[in-house]
């Protein structure tokens, strides 16, 4: 009873209770303040990490769009993350191409994940466990314009040129030059070009007739587009050397070039040409379906203007849509494609390190032809279309925009 009475008297007294209660509550107040300060810091650090991740993903997507190597993509992401306050010496950065999670696991997307340990300040007096923060960002590049003609050289003047009475009409696909020269695209003489857009890494000189069906004016100072066929493996020669003289040729290795005369039919497959040029002579009649002609190092192409050439690329397989394919590392050559109105080249002329001169008055079946080369000089007449999926061809990106999606 005495103990209980003492407690009752203690609770009724007011002179020392406030100090005692304050003393008992002080750890809770200090702890709450400590966690409040640290939590506020962690919140703002999360915002900074997200900004760094977004900047890194955007920079990585720029390099991917240009077709750069994975090491270059990762280096760009790390550089941009560092410039935005992320310390790579302390935290970890993971770059995934394509992303491994989320809704955009596609080849045109890149994922950047940043992780770092957070500092504890006042809360460290009460809790010694580790605090981790992370941020994730995904950027994609999307095609806003397709292309039929792409000149890949980054600095050549007149990387795409038209002269004389050349006439080219592109339906649904544009002309692109990666060159940063002031005259990267050079249209002169009495030439005529109709296309949705002209897209240049540098400038455009157009003194001839130019009709743009989608863009109000040429797009200049545009970012470069990647080589659209850069991931297609080059064929390797195998077997013995075949004889190029005959009315019917089989796919395989031709060690002394190919000089085609008269009526010649090419059976479907890959023709590996080395040791001499690929030529068609006057009045030759060359036919073949499902054909890919690979031009080895130093091999040029010469089509006689009086020859009739009707060739088409495979519609399936590793070389679907590729009609001519030149060694990417081969010494620079000039390739002349010339032919009469009865000629037809259906597929892509892919000569990434080479110069193409197109002088013929023909295109592919249904307008299905693409030219991807170091430079392209056009002096012929043709109508080219973009919807050629039935012939194994895919649309080529002409202009691509980048956005953050996650």
Overall shape: elongated
Q: What's the Cα radius of gyration?
A: 33 Å
What's the total helix number?
A: 3
Tally of extended strands?
Answer: 27
Percent helix:
10-25%
Largest sheet: 20 strands, mixed
- What average pLDDT do the residues reach? 86
Question: In percent, how much strand structure appears in the residues?
Answer: 35-45%
Low-confidence stretches: none
User: What would you call the structural class?
Assistant: alpha/beta
How far the N terminus sits from the C terminus, by CA atoms, comes to 69 Å
Output the helix-strand order. HHHEEEEEEEEEEEEEEEEEEEEEEEEEEE
Structure description:
- The chain is α/β, with parallel strands linked by helices.
- Helices cover 18% and strands 37% of the residues.
- It has three helices and 27 strands.
- It has helices at residues 2-12, 17-65, 70-83, and strands at residues 92-96, 109-118, 131-151, 160-162, 167-171, 174-177, 185-187, 192-195, 198-200, 204-206, 209-212, 248-249, 252-254, 258-260, 263-266, 269-273, 278-280, 285-288, 291-295, 301-303, 308-312, 322-326, 334-337, 344-358, 369-378, 381-385, 396-404.
- The strands form three sheets. The chain has a 20-stranded mixed sheet that branches. Strands 11-8-5-26 form a four-stranded parallel sheet, with no helix packed on it.
- The protein starts with a helix and ends with a strand.
């Amino acid at each position: 009873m005495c103990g209980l009475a003492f407690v009752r008297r203690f609770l009724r007294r007011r002179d020392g209770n406030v100090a005692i209660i304050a003393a008992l509550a002080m750890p809770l107040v200090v702890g709450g303040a400590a966690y409040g300060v640290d939590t506020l810091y962690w919140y703002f650090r999360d915002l900074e990490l997200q900004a760094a991740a977004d900047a890194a993903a955007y920079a990585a997507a720029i390099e991917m769009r240009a077709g750069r190597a994975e090491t270059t993509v990762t280096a760009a992401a790390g550089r941009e993350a560092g410039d935005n306050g992320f310390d790579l010496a302390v935290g970890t950065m993971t770059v995934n191409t394509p992303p491994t999670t989320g809704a955009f696991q596609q080849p045109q997307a890149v994922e950047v994940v940043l992780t770092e340990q957070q500092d504890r300040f006042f809360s460290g007096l009460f809790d010694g466990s580790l605090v981790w923060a992370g941020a994730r960002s995904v950027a994609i590049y999307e095609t806003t314009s397709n292309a039929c003609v792409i000149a890949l050289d980054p600095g050549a003047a007149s990387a795409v040129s038209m002269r004389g009475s050349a006439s080219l009409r592109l339906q649904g696909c544009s002309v692109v030059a990666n060159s940063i020269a002031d005259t990267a695209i050079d249209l002169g003489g009495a030439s005529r070009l109709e296309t949705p857009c002209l897209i240049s890494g540098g400038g455009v000189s157009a003194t001839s007739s130019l009709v743009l069906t989608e863009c109000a004016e040429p797009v200049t100072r545009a970012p470069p587009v990647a080589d659209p066929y850069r991931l297609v493996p080059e064929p390797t020669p195998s077997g013995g050397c075949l004889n190029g003289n005959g009315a019917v040729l089989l796919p395989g290795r031709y060690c002394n070039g190919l000089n085609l005369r008269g009526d010649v039919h090419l059976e479907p497959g890959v023709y590996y040409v080395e040791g001499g040029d690929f030529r068609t002579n006057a009045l030759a009649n060359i036919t073949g379906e499902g054909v890919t002609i690979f031009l080895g190092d130093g091999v040029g192409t010469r089509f006689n203007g009086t020859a009739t050439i009707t060739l088409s690329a495979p519609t399936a397989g590793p070389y679907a849509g590729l009609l001519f394919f030149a060694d990417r590392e081969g010494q620079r050559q000039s390739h002349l494609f010339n032919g009469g109105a009865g000629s037809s080249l259906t597929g892509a002329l892919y000569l990434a390190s080479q110069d193409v001169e197109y002088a013929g008055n023909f295109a592919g079946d249904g307008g299905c032809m693409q030219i991807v080369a170091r430079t392209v000089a056009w002096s012929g007449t043709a109508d080219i279309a973009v919807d050629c999926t039935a012939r194994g061809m895919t649309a080529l990106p002409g202009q691509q925009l980048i956005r953050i999606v996650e």
